[in-house]
Amino acid sequence: MRLEEIKRTTMIGAGTMGSGMGLCFAQAGYEVTLYDVKPEQLEGALNRVKNSQAVLIEEGVVSERAAREARERIRLTTSLKEALDGVQFVLEAAPETLEIKHKLFRELESLCSEETILATNTSGLSISAIASVCRRPERVGGMHWVNPPELVPLVEVIKGEKTSEETLALIYAVAGKLGKVPVLIRKDVPGFGLNRLQFAVLREALHLVETGVLTPEDVDRTMKCGLGFRYSWLGPLETADLGGLDVFHSVASYLFKDLSDVKTPPESFSRLVAEGRLGIKSGRGFYEYEAGSREEILRRRDAYFVRQWQLIQAVLGDKKLS
Ligand SMILES: NC(=O)c1ccc[n+]([C@@H]2O[C@H](COP(=O)([O-])OP(=O)(O)OC[C@H]3O[C@@H](n4cnc5c(N)ncnc54)[C@H](O)[C@@H]3O)[C@@H](O)[C@H]2O)c1
User: Is the distance from the beta carbon of residue 96 to the nearest atom of ligand 1 less than 6 Å?
Assistant: First the structure.
């Protein structure tokens, strides 16, 4: 299949990720079907789409008219058969268990045409394991987005053991057409690229708090005002190049051995989860959240991300973020 032949797309699962990814496809001109097993999730998805669009309109990224036209390209259904009728590109964003994904991929294969690309947004399950139930695993590949998917540019494109080069190239090209920045993950390793980096940082952050070196507030301040501030522009390897590899090598030779290398989540972290301190959704995590503050916090986050992206684009001119 050629990129231009992809017109119709379906998101399987209309939760946090399915609705945001669907919005990106609709904004890029694709016909989008959001499928979910729960009708109330579809209603919620439409509200999330409208809320995201409100931020984009407020920040001048899209016009009211373009937003309405994008919304009109989105259909909602609880019928899998209807969702897959005439579809060329499927992106699965159902719950993260192999059992659910296996059941779905069997159904997807039986209901889609032979050519339909079957992509999964799994956070870290093996693409090869997901595709193992398919008769044609070569058309199954990973397409891992970052939350909030309508605002974060990165999309990881992952090759499963049997993913064909053609499938991989198509998923990569679709991501580019959506205005995203695709990165190819050539080996199906747990966590792919982004989550390996993210969890390496989280492990050290937890270690610094547990050993009393930094408070949670100071971990986050260090990241936002120091490392993270720089990372939106310079990756860790570019940073090392600019700082001097000899300098970074000397620091690595005494510091690596002191960094946390625990193999399981530390006790203090497990305790928070056991106590039901799950973060903003339960009102308490590392921090306390007032009832009803969630929407406002997410709206401010989204407005910040939109402006950060606009700033990066303004600095880059007609070049692309790489
Ligand atoms: N939330 C994130 O930050 C994030 C980031 C990247 C990837 N992911 C991955 O994306 C996928 C979806 O995550 P999410 O955060 O959107 O979850 P979510 O819980 O918000 O949404 C999942 C949706 O799938 C629906 N669902 C349940 N069973 C289904 C079935 N059999 N068929 C179709 N839909 C079904 C649920 O009703 C729900 O609406 C997961 O694999 C997750 O690991 C999540």
Answer: yes
